[in-house]
């Protein structure tokens, strides 16, 4: 590994020299922690980034914490310079690079250079034997939320076809698609789910085209996994399809057509982690949680949700709240006929095998490549 | 109930896509066509488009009327065009470099002023239904046509007519083909170019308003996926002919709908490849329509790329 001498690091080190001369022991002051949040898109996108930014806002309200944020940081070498500048310029010692693609190689490249800085990555697969101990990964079992979405969808659909606009076929997205369909199949095992991949996290026109294509196919409940679900929600509602939200509460966008939504609840998670660091503790390298742990919450049910749907939704949610619920359980095949789970076999929500999912279950129309 | 169209879903989706997606390409390419016919290049239309999208959305939200938003977007675009046209009259100012600078400026300003407007929901432009004759909901949906699309088609033919028959069009062409000849007949090339660039900017602003106010119909920072840049390329592809710009824009819109539509009828693998369809199509057409002898046929003589 080599250290690049760029303008940033030169400026930073001369600034650090000056600061060190004036303020000895500044970094030792435990009551002033600088926390950096990095987002891949705008932090008010009605979606993924907004959910994280709401968590950051809760951290900002804590005493003795300075929060710095940067949005629209691409998953390229750009995020490395953002991280380095947060560390060198702003003195950040806890970073939350929140996008999936920031992990490998970017965090893995930067982390060894700054052994005193803690890197908390959302969604990454940290493993003790491969990755530095100063890096941690955290995520929530939001697939459970999509499963509950699917239950409301299963009650609302008349065509027995539901639709999913997905960005990329990565494990978290595949789990969401599978959970959405399996939720709907709790209501009626005849239901199928058409998935369309757009190939990118944020492509407004393509997301609108994908939503229209789903509506053309007769999908009358549509959800998505893209960074900003605003376009999908508005387009689907305009075509007369019901929508299930994702990432954040999108009900203001389509109040009549919104059934429910799977939302992140990062505020508690982030304030908890920051508190641990301020009290001198260490955050676990591998943090996961579901609806029961307060990582994920559901939007209030919309006016189109029937009483029968509401009852099944609440009953299932109560089961999930007990912890260890399994969405993926046998007998189950993928959509090319391979057995995923035999009779009696079940993958609980915290099963690590689910985080390397590479299949779409039977009933999902689409392909992972 | 929707009907299952089977494989026919693909052409229907492409028709719908051509109508929905092509309008921004059409307006930007018509604007660039006008500007380039006067002998100047404006590569900054991507920035103008994004700023127009933001301005249109913001004004529509504040005023409650989508059409006022469109007018505001056109005005904002015209201001960008005037600025470009004014700067480029100075000796030694390179219009290509200036255009790129203005593109970045437009994007930056749009993101800066657009922050408070990502969350609010502005009124949408209304659509006109041309699908009343059909019982099939997919066809009805595909034939929901926005008034701006019709305006764009009329504009393409009006511009073609203007360049051929009207005094104004001939003036623009003279200035674009030979500044010396224009001066000899008493025209001021700078003034003609200034207003052509302003009008081109206004068209790009309207294209942006279409994106934010109709399809997809909301403002956010990732709204444009390079429509402004592709449209500049379309002008060259269309050989500076407004009617050809229309066909090029339709082709692009239709090809863009191919990817999602094919996934719904079962072509599930290799969708990245189908998403590249518009670009592949452009390349193929360029290769087949090109010939070494006529590479610059139709190009205005005063363009800095042909000089």
UniProtKB/TrEMBL annotation, chain A:
Q: Which GO terms describe its cellular component?
A: plasma membrane
Q: Out of the domains of life, which is the source? A: Bacteria
- Range of residues in the leader sequence: 1-29
Looking at the keywords, is Signal present?
yes
Task: Kindly give the CDD domains that the UniProt entry links to this protein.
Answer: PBP1_BMP-like
> Pfam families in the record, alphabetically?
Bmp
Q: What is the name of the protein in this document?
A: ABC transporter substrate-binding protein
Q: What is the lineage of its organism?
A: Bacteria, Pseudomonadati, Pseudomonadota, Alphaproteobacteria, Rhodobacterales
Automatic annotation (TrEMBL), chain B:
Which Gene Ontology MF annotations are present?
transmembrane transporter activity
Work out whether the entry's keyword set contains Cell membrane. yes
Q: Is Transmembrane among this UniProt entry's keywords?
A: yes
TM spans, by residue? 6-29, 41-60, 66-87, 99-118, 138-163, 192-213, 245-263, 269-288
Per UniProt, the keywords (alphabetical) are:
Cell membrane, Membrane, Transmembrane, Transmembrane helix
Q: Where in the cell is it found?
A: Cell membrane
Q: List the GO cellular component terms.
A: plasma membrane
Topological category with respect to the lipid bilayer: Multi-pass membrane protein
Pfam families membership? BPD_transp_2
Q: What CDD domains does UniProt report for this protein, alphabetically?
A: TM_PBP1_transp_TpRbsC_like
| Protein name, entry field | ABC transporter permease
Task: Give the organism the record lists.
Answer: Actibacterium mucosum KCTC 23349
């Amino acid at each position: 590994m080599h250290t690049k001498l760029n303008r940033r690091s030169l400026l930073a080190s001369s600034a650090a020299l000056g600061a060190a001369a004036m303020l000895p022991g500044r970094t030792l002051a435990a009551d002033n922690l600088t926390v950096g949040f990095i987002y891949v898109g705008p932090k008010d996108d009605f979606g993924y980034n907004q959910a994280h930014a709401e968590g950051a806002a809760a951290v900002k309200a804590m005493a003795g914490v300075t929060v710095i944020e940067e949005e629209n940081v691409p998953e390229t070498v750009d995020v490395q310079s953002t991280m380095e500048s947060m560390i060198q310029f702003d003195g950040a010692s806890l970073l939350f690079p929140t996008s999936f693609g920031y992990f490998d190689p970017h965090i893995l490249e930067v982390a060894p250079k700054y052994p005193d800085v803690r890197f908390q990555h959302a969604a990454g697969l940290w493993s003790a034997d491969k990755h530095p101990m100063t890096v941690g990964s955290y995520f929530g079992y939001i697939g459970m939320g999509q499963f509950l979405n699917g239950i409301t969808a299963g009650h609302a659909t008349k065509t027995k076809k539901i639709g999913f606009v997905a960005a990329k076929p990565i494990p978290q997205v595949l789990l969401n698609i599978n959970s959405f369909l399996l939720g709907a199949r709790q209501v009626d095992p005849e239901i199928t789910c058409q998935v369309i991949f757009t190939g990118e996290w944020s492509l407004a026109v393509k997301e609108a085209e994908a939503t229209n294509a789903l509506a053309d196919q007769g999908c009358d409940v549509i959800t998505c996994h893209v960074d900003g679900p605003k376009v999908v929600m508005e387009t689907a509602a305009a075509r007369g399809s019901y929508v299930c939200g994702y990432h954040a509460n999108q009900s203001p966008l389509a109040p009549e057509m919104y059934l429910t939504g799977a939302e992140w609840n990062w505020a508690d998670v982030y304030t908890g982690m920051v508190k641990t660091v301020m009290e001198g503790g260490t955050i676990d390298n591998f943090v996961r949680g579901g609806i029961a742990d307060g990582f994920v919450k559901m939007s209030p049910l919309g006016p189109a949700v029937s009483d029968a749907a509401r009852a099944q939704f609440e009953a299932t949610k109560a089961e999930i709240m007990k912890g260890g619920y399994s969405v993926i359980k046998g007998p189950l095949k993928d959509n090319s006929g391979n057995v995923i789970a035999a009779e009696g076999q079940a993958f609980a929500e915290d099963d690590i095998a689910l985080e390397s999912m590479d299949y779409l279950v039977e009933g999902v129309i689409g392909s992972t490549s | 109930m929707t009907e299952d169209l089977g494989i026919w879903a693909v052409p229907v989706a492409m028709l719908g896509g051509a109508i929905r997606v092509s309008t921004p390409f059409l307006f930007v390419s018509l604007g660039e066509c006008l500007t380039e016919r006067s002998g100047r290049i404006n590569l900054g239309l991507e920035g103008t488009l994004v700023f127009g999208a933001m301005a249109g959305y913001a004004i529509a939200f504040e005023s409650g009327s989508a059409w006022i938003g469109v007018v505001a977007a056109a005005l904002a675009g015209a201001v960008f065009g005037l600025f470009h046209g004014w700067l480029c009259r100075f000796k030694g100012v390179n219009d290509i470099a200036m255009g790129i600078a203005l593109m970045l400026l437009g994007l930056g300003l749009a993101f800066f002023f657009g922050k408070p407007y990502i969350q609010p929901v502005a009124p949408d432009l209304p659509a006109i239904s041309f699908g009343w004759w059909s019982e099939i909901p997919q066809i009805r949906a595909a034939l929901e046509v926005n008034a701006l699309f019709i305006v764009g088609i009329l504009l393409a033919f009006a511009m073609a007519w203007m360049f051929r028959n009207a005094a104004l069009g001939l003036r623009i062409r003279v200035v674009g083909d030979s500044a010396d000849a224009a001066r000899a007949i008493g025209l001021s090339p700078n003034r003609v170019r200034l207003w052509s660039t302003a009008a081109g900017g206004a068209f790009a602003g309207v294209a942006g308003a279409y994106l934010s106010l109709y399809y997809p119909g909301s403002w956010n920072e990732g709204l444009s996926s390079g429509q402004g840049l592709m449209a500049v390329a379309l002008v060259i592809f269309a050989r500076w002919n407004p009617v050809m710009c229309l066909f090029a824009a339709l082709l692009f819109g239709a090809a863009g709908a191919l990817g999602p539509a094919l996934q719904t009828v079962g072509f599930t693998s290799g969708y990245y490849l189908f998403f590249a369809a518009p670009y592949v199509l452009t390349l193929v057409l360029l290769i087949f329509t090109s010939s070494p002898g006529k590479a610059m046929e139709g190009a205005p003589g005063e363009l800095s790329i042909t000089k």
